Amino acid sequence: MELKAVFFDLDGVIADSEDLHRRAFNAAFKEFGLAWHWDFAIYKELLSIAGGQERIRHYMGRAEPSLLKRPDCTNFIKAMHKGKNQTYNELIGREKTLLRPGVAELIESLQAEQIKCVVATSTSAENVHAALLKGFGKGYEKVFATIADGDRVEEKKPSPDLYVWALGEIGLPPNACLAIEDAPRGIEGATAADIKAVAVVSRYTVGEEFPKAAAVVDGFGSGDKPFELLRGSDFGMAHVLSPQLLKAWLGR
Ligand code: XBP
To answer: Which residues contact 144 (CB under 8 A, 6 or more apart)?
Structure first.
């Protein structure tokens, strides 16, 4: 089947933003009087839980389970997450660039071939808006055929729901699409929706296993900084993610 659409995860794939989320979570914990601190190692582990509110609830269960019994626990988590998002927005504003090197070039070359670009992320709508606005400017909605954010579905990744929702929006079968993810649970979500997926590892997922990925690389690659192929075939092509290479991976 011909490649008609490419799904991009947001945090870790389009944007190098996961550490900003981490710092924003820590600021919210402080603001809400919690002596919690998520360092790199803890956050790496917690990234297996998709969604900010889900991640807070999960950690609460292990760090301070009595809080889960508070009658206003859900609202407490919601308020903390809201505070976290405000800080995240401020942190984004201070960044020079948020996009991972090479992603804008890949999106441009896909569009030149009329291949749709889609965002598929567990992240909440307001944070998706903030990140894409920073990355692509006011016209970001025109860059993507559709944006599947975490508020669209009940079950986030590794559930296939986001992907299934997005397939419905663009009206394409899964075998005409390829997903780019940086984390195993993202690859799970895409493949559970029958979409072939490749991993572009990020700073938080280096060294992880991606058993279901068709290929694994360490970045998008560019002329002066080609990606390293960690698994799969490059079909003899240059180590830069290009429509040709994505088509070759889909074809396998
Ligand atoms: C992204 C996430 C999100 C962000 C924060 O998942 O897990 O939780 O870390 O999102 P994926 P919030 O990259 O697999 O799509 O906006 O919910 O805080």
So the answer is: 117, 118, 119, 132
Mean pLDDT score across all residues of the chain: 97
Q: Are 56 and 62 in contact, with CB atoms under 8 Å apart?
A: no
Closest C-alpha among 190, 121, 115, 204 to residue 160: 190
184 Cβ below 6 A of ligand 1: no
Determine if ligand 1 sits within 6 Å of the CB of residue 52: yes
Query: Quick check: CB of 191 below 6 Å from ligand 1?
Result: no
Active site (catalytic) residues: 9, 11
For the record, the structure tokens of 136 come out as 């692509």
C-alpha 50 to ligand 1 mean position (Å) = 5
Q: Write down the pLDDT at residue 1.
A: 84
Strand partners, 119: 8, 147
More confident of the two residues 223 and 50: 50
List CB contacts of 66: < 8 A, sequence separation 6 or more: none
Mutate to test the pocket of ligand 1, among 123, 161, 163, 165 (most ligand atoms within 8 A of CB): 123
Identify whether the C-beta of residue 122 lies closer than 8 Å to the C-beta of residue 162: yes
**Residue range 97-124: mean pLDDT, rounded:** 97
Atom of ligand 1 nearest to the CA of 122: 15
pLDDT on residue 86? 97
In degrees, rounded to 5, the angle at the alpha carbon of residue 144 between the alpha carbons of residues 139 and 146 is: 120
Ligand 1 atom with minimal separation from the 182 CA: 13
CA angle, 116 then 160 then 5, to 5°: 10
pLDDT (mean) for 147-168: 97
